[in-house]
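Note to self: the last two entries modelled the partners one at a time, which told us nothing about the interface. This time every component goes in together.
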Amino acid sequence: MTRTPLIAGNWKMVLDHQQGTLLVQKLDWTLKDAKHDHAAVEVAVLPPFTSLRTVQTLIEGDKLPIALGAQDVSAHESGAHTGEVSAAMLTKLGVRYVAVGHSERRQDHGEDDALVRAKTAKALEHGLVPIVCVGEPLEVRRAGEHVGHTVGQVTAALEGLQAAQVAGLVLAYEPVWAIGTGEVATPEDAQEVCEALRAAVAGQFDAETAAAVRVLYGGSVKPANIASIMAQPDVDGALVGGASTDAGDFAAIVRYREHPS
Ligand code: PGA
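The predicted structure of the combined assembly is written out below.
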């Protein structure tokens, strides 16, 4: 089973639509200059909602080999939900990926496992590929309970789905203590949890589904640490925050296979 690595840039609430356009253009030029093979390592950007249309126009107009993603989606189909954005609206904008259950949503907006599950199911229903984010806070890591914690989050998010749906989605292990802190998990830390998440999918569904699901690592990923993280057998890519808002850094992360080991 070969899983195509995915490097996804989560811009968070950084870069307006003009800055986002410039970043995507520069990213594309840099990757073209470097003859990046997009079939070998897939690239996605997750701009804020207000930039999706502009970035879509650029990607589609110039036929850029970059996938478009969103940072969140409503669990509701449509209707009276002020401030929310539906899966159907995202699909219509050519969005392929959507982050669900990012720790900043869980922490700042009280999103629980039940809501993450509902959003995941809604995204799948509309043909989006959810990037289901899980991760433990520092006190859970210190207590040595990070595997149980993250496996519990994944199991809850995937409950009730079909194996074929799970095979096509993406999981992202993002230890909360490593997000935006410069505190990166060691490659072994990343591997330990990514392997456990895959095993949990095998237990909840089957071995074939577990072999197909892509598991990303996220948390202070930079050009200097990506290669050793990607060398881990159960890490299939990265969800990059801060470094994805710099075209040069993000392109360097995408090109991790060329880094000296
Ligand atoms: P970071 O964010 O790379 O800035 O640590 C990662 C994320 O939250 O997706």
